[in-house]
Write a structure and sequence with these properties.
With 1238 residues, this protein is an all-alpha fold. Strands 1-2 form a two-stranded antiparallel ribbon. The longest helix is centred in the last third of the chain and has 29 residues, at 948-976.
């Protein structure tokens, strides 16, 4: 069809015209012609036709109002009214807005007005009401949008065209099912899809807009942008919120991937090739061609960012659509700017030929950038085309999974030379990255110092090259990388990344705070992440070990330099200090892994420098007075011991600590050469001995002048971390066992460590952090290992420490509370070694002797607490706090052999604890400590197999203790909660949190079995009575301000969850007002934004509803949840209120699968309690939907019937609950996307 001299769309063949006739309502018409008719639009006014006079007049008036609103908004005049009008304009029904938007777009040149018109058109297609439009209508709309963009490409702004093309993509997606229906249902889907109107449409757009011989550059950009909008709209993670069922989205996603995605990638590569060739040939349209290259490459990136399908999928007709039941997320930014995180691209086996075996496709981004690089470097500024090419190479480096053959053939890739496809691919992308790094930047250039500052292009190249290296290291093994990357006479990949890593570390990337966000910091993080993946576990090759040694040596030199420079710096603010410590620990963990890549050399280097500085410290000590260099020396030693602790051992994080595999292997003469194993073991011994030596030095009065609390803290931390993995640990390594085993030098080291602990406790009582590390880390580690504990008990120093603790020789009042508590725990845990040293049955006597003085002291303080002058004295409160911490630590350290004596001791504490709670009314510190002590008592009593008499005693104590606390403290908390700030409110909440934990102990299964064994289910058990009483006390003060504190809120709803499972009758026995307040708090929990809290509230409802159904409804008893409460309009049951709340939440808000499944557990028993009320609620929902959309109401009614159908019975069996849960998940998946728009 001849378009005349006007540049535009061209249909070149009869075949294309015939294909277009399939799409157009009028035979022989053009897909994108403006004469295409759109039926049922504004009284018959089609998209291409002129509107009737009345409609044109109304459109003109509407346009005038829109122009005035846009002008006022831009000028700041009457902005509120302008915003209101624009919002009304954008919310016009789809049956009214299409003609109006078309009129505005055709009759005005104001960009903001046209943008709002395009936005309104897109939003109309997103709404569910657009479902009444026919596929032909959407097809014509798509064509008109493209036609408008082509005709107005010179006079319109990019954001106008982008919004209109996005609207076209949404319209096409809405008609996708009808356009591809034959392909969905036809077994020969490939052939059916090839002849479908959809394929013809995409083919016509490609032929008309992307033919380089006929289409102008601007038109080709529009075609690329349209396909980019399609990829964005059909991707699962980037799709717009089209109000359609999830199944429809998944079908569109799967079919688009199956039939069109590879073709679009090939088309984008062809467009890039043609545009790049013209650009490099010196075309007059250089700017447009560069933009076209960038847009085409960005389309390739968006396609590789696709959420590629995996799994069984769903069957539509006779065709299985793969991947609709699970996806590998390929990118989180949909082809945007690259991120530092490696995001795997897993397109699958079907993409192997296109991405790996086609040299024209796989090598194009590398070749294009290589051609542009000289120009980019000369200009110094990066361009969109260059950035897009590098980004695509980064994504190609992230290829993983089935795209690579399982058994790779020789010569499997373009230019393979006998190498496999995987090796050729790695060589291509790694070779490109190495070219970007040439010449390798220096440390000064990475820091941006002076004239060595890199240009924008060079900085971007370095970052993207590091991203490529990180991606390759994450996916492929080091030997494969070394085998794949050909050096070509230059530096190999390993040498290049080693040198660059060393330059980054020399620049202070990990040790200088000012370099954290610089190019050096970014590159170092990427490269070190890659090193972590490359090294892994096991023995490291020699060349990699040399690289590890170079990197560690560079880091150590720079770290020592920064430590000496910062020795006299003032400390940062507390928050900044914590952030800096967390970052430093993370960096040291990374460096430790690299050091273990060459353990003998790196540990030897670390030991040598530590030895030198320890010797220098001794020289300073012998001089009699400190020298000026002492602060620098102490800071360097702190750094060396910190690094040594990370290299020698890993943080346990709740797991059994073990010697790192690489260190253990390096010390094992059976796995490495004997002299190498001995050298590595000797280095470990030197580091440990140096730390022990300094700890002992700090424990003597003469050593205090040349040590510091900070240095001693890091020594104790290192020894605690090391001893957990090495000391008498049964490592299985003969060399390490000889040094640190029970039959080797282990007992000597245990003795030295114990003497150090005693000395430091005496010499540094006011250093809180040091004492906490001593008692909570080192001593705790030693007593937890049986062999070490037995060795400790036999030491005279241990006996002296126990005697000082029992007789008051240690200045416990000077220690922080945590140190006192952990010291008491460590001493009591020492009972595990008493039997081996002093004989069986002595554990109880040992613990009783340790704690007798503390118990007597508490009794004395309680007896003399009536005199205000003494009881509230600071010294008395300090003494009381110390005693409470001691007893709490002892109770937390119970063993099976010491439980009985601790239970007997706890019974002695019941009366004084209640008395002290009353005596210290208003003292929040003492009250919180007493609550924590009561928690420790409760934990002790419910441990193991508690006896009924023990639980009865505990329940009585808790009931009295709660009354004392309520009388003395809860009233004050209630009065001050409303006036407190955030920090003070959190402080006040600590007592309530402790009270909630105490009540939670009484809701354990063991307690319930004891308390309910002699009681009927409907009677109140002693423990249940205590819990119920505590909940009643808390309800009046648990305001929403307190529940905004996450930890307290979680504790409260966890308690209610446990109570609903163990004591549901107690909940239903509450008085009407109290029960109503509890239900209000429960409703608050259901609407909580934290899904974990909402799920806890649902579980509470489930427990109450099940009890109501089984024990009340089926037996014809009291209503429970069926009770009514006053309502201004009508009296409705509590159950109906919760039913409405849950249905509203799952249908009108996007909830996770865990929430929906938990809601199913609560809904089923609630529905069974009152089926009639649920049916009435369902009828109201359908009636409300019918007022908006009849088809929607019909679908909702069918889905509600299915919810209770499909074999769901009226019982609470496991099978029935599982069946209802599956039905609810399907119901929400179908209805939520549709209902959420209304």
């Amino acid at each position: 069809v001849d378009r005349g001299n006007k540049p535009g769309l061209r249909w070149a063949s009869a075949r294309e015209a015939a294909a277009a006739s399939v799409l157009d309502p009028v035979p022989g018409g053009l897909l994108l012609r403006r004469e295409a008719q759109l039926s049922a639009m504004l009284g018959g006014a089609g998209i291409g036709s002129e509107p009737p006079g009345s409609a044109e007049a109304s459109y003109a008036a509407l346009q005038e109002q829109l122009l005035v609103a846009c002008a006022n908004f831009d000028a700041g005049r009457d902005r509120a009214q302008a915003e209101e009008f624009i919002l009304k304009f954008q919310r016009m029904p789809s049956s009214e807005c299409v003609g109006a938007c078309k009129y505005v777009l055709e009759h005005t040149q104001v960009s903001t007005a046209r943008f709002h018109a395009a936005t309104t058109l897109r939003q109309a297609f997103l709404r569910a009401e657009a479902a009444h439009l026919r596929p032909a209508d959407f097809r014509a709309i798509t064509g008109w949008c493209l036609e408008w963009c082509v005709q107005n490409c010179a006079s319109s702004q990019p954001f106008e065209r982008a919004q209109l093309l996005s609207a076209a993509a949404v319209a096409l997606k809405r008609s996708w099912g009808a356009l591809a229906a034959s392909a969905f249902e036809n077994p020969a889907a490939d052939q059916a899809e090839a002849a479908s109107p959809l394929s013809a449409l995409l083919t016509q757009v490609r032929a008309s807009l992307l033919d380089p011989s006929t289409a102008p550059v601007a038109h080709r950009c529009i075609g690329i942008d349209f396909f980019h909008a399609l990829v964005t709209e059909f991707g699962v993670s980037t799709a717009s919120a089209v109000r359609l069922p999830n199944e429809y989205h998944l079908k569109c996603h799967a079919s688009f991937q199956l039939w069109h995605l590879q073709n679009l990638y090939s088309m984008a590569i062809d467009t890039t090739r043609a545009a790049g060739h013209a650009l490099l040939s010196g075309s007059d349209e250089a700017v447009g061609l560069a933009h076209l290259c960038a847009r085409a490459l960005e389309l390739c990136s968006a396609i590789l960012s696709w959420r590629f399908s995996a799994g069984k999928g769903i069957r539509v007709g006779d065709r299985l659509l793969r991947g609709t039941q699970g996806f590998h997320v390929s990118s989180g930014n949909a082809g945007g700017a690259p991120t530092d995180e490696v995001v795997l691209v897993e397109p699958g086996e079907g993409w192997r030929t296109l991405l790996l075996r086609s040299a024209d496709v796989s090598l194009l981004p590398m070749q294009l950038y290589a051609s542009l690089r000289e120009t980019l470097l000369a200009s110094g500024s990066d361009t969109a085309a260059g950035a897009a090419a590098r980004h695509l190479v980064v994504q190609l480096a992230s290829l993983s999974g089935d795209v690579f053959p399982d058994e790779e053939d020789e010569g499997g890739g373009p230019g393979g030379g006998g190498r496999s496809a995987r090796e050729v691919h790695i060589g291509n992308v790694a070779g490109a990255a190495l070219q970007w790094l040439e010449p390798l930047p220096s440390a000064a250039a990475l820091c941006g110092h002076g004239e060595a500052t890199l240009s924008d292009t060079r900085e971007a190249e370095v970052r993207d090259a590091c991203r490529v290296v990180n991606a390759l290291a994450t996916i492929h093994a080091l030997p494969l990388l070394q085998r794949s990357v050909l050096s070509g006479g230059g530096l190999s990949l390993l040498e290049s990344i080693t040198t660059l890593t060393c330059e980054c570390l020399s620049a202070g990337a990990l040790t200088d705070e000012s370099q954290r966000d610089s190019l050096a910091g970014d590159a170092a993080r990427l490269l070190l992440d890659g090193w972590l993946d490359l090294l892994g576990l096991g023995l490291i090759a020699d060349d990699a070990s040399q690289s590890c040694l170079r990197i560690f040596d560079t880091f150590l030199q720079r770290a020592l330099l920064d430590a000496s420079r910062g020795a006299f710096d003032e400390e940062d603010e507390e928050e900044q200090q914590y952030a800096a410590i967390a970052t430093r620990e993370e960096n040291l963990d990374t460096v430790a892994v690299i050091a273990r890549g060459a353990p003998k050399a790196c540990l030897g280097m670390l030991a040598e420098r530590t030895q030198q500085r320890v010797a220098e410290l001794h020289r300073v000590r012998t001089q009699g007075s400190p020298v000026a260099s002492l602060p620098v020396l102490l800071e360097e030693l702190y750094l060396l011991f910190n690094i040594a602790g990370h290299v020698l051992a890993d943080a346990a994080h709740g797991e059994t600590p073990m010697v790192p595999e690489l260190v253990s292997s390096a010390c094992d003469p059976l796995r490495v050469a004997v002299h190498d194993a001995e050298a590595c073991a000797q280095a470990v011994k030197i580091l440990v001995s140096a730390a022990v030596e300094l700890a002992k030095l700090g424990g003597h009065a003469t050593g205090a002048a040349v040590t510091s609390p900070r240095l001693l803290e890091i020594c104790i931390w290192m020894l605690g971390r090391w001893s957990a993995s090495y000391l008498m640990a049964g490592t299985g390594n003969a060399a390490l066992e000889a040094l640190y085993g029970a039959e080797g030098e282990g007992p000597v080291i245990v003795r030295d460590l114990l003497e150090s602990c005693v000395g430091l406790l005496v010499q540094w009582p006011a250093e809180g952090e040091l004492q906490i590390l001593l008692c909570g880390t080192l001593l705790r580690t030693l007593v937890q290992r049986q062999s070490a504990c037995e060795c400790l008990i036999a030491q005279a120093a241990w006996q002296d420490m126990c005697r000082m603790f029992a007789e008051g020789g240690l200045k416990l009042e000077l220690l922080p509370g945590k140190a006192v508590r952990t010291l008491s725990m460590a001493l009591c845990l020492g009972a595990r070694g008493v039997a081996a040293v002093h004989g069986q049955g002595q554990e109880a006597q040992y613990v009783a002797a340790l704690l007798r003085r503390q118990v007597e002291q508490l009794l004395s303080l309680a007896a003399h607490s009536k005199a205000p002058a003494s009881s509230h004295h600071v010294h008395t409160v300090q003494q009381l706090s110390c005693v409470l911490e001691c007893l709490r630590g002892a109770l937390q350290a119970f063993l099976p052999s010491t439980r009985n004596v601790l239970v007997a001791m706890s019974r002695e504490l019941f009366a004084p604890a209640n008395h002290l709670m009353m005596a210290y009314a208003g003292d929040a510190l003492v009250a919180n400590l007493l609550l924590k002590l009561a928690n420790a008592v409760a934990e002790l009593f419910v441990f193991g197999d508690p006896r009924p008499d023990e639980i009865a005693d505990l329940s009585r104590f808790c009931l009295l203790f709660l009354n004392s606390y309520a009388t003395a403290h809860l009233g004050k908390v209630q009065c001050t909660v409303g006036a407190l700030g955030a920090d003070a409110l959190e402080q006040k909440s600590k007592g309530i949190s402790a009270l909630l934990r105490l009540l939670s102990h009484l809701t354990s299964r063991d307690v319930a079995e004891c308390t309910l064994s002699g009681h009927d289910l409907d009677k109140v058990s002693p423990a249940g009575e205590a819990v119920l009483h505590g909940v009643k006390l808390l309800i009046p003060i648990l305001s929403t301000d307190l529940l905004h504190i996450p930890k307290l809120c979680n504790l409260y709803f966890t308690l209610l969850r446990q109570m609903s499972l163990v004591y549901p009758s107690q909940i239903l026995s509450m008085a009407g007002d109290e029960f109503g307040q509890l239900m209000d708090l429960l409703q608050y929990g259901l609407s909580h934004r934290d899904q974990s809290i909402a799920c806890l509230a649902l579980e509470v409802l489930e427990g109450i509803a099940k009890f109501t159904y089984l024990e009340r409804v089926l037996k014809g008893h009291a209503p429970g949840l069926l009770a009514t409460r006053a309502n201004p309009q009508a009296a409705e049951s509590i159950l109906v209120t919760f039913l409405q709340c849950i249905m509203q939440s799952i249908l009108y808000h996007a909830q996770g699968l865990a929430y929906i499944e938990t809601a199913a557990g609560a809904l089923l028993p609630m529905i069974l309690c009152d089926v009639q009320s649920f049916q009435q609620l369902a009828s109201e929902m359908v009636q409300h939907a019918s007022q908006q959309d009849t088809a929607l109401a019909q679908k909702l009614g069918q889905s509600l019937q299915m919810l209770l159908g499909e074999g769901v019975q009226q019982d609470l069996s496991r099978v029935n609950q599982r069946r209802f849960r599956s039905n609810l998940v399907v119901f929400v998946g179908e209805m939520q996307p549709v209902l959420a728009s209304h």
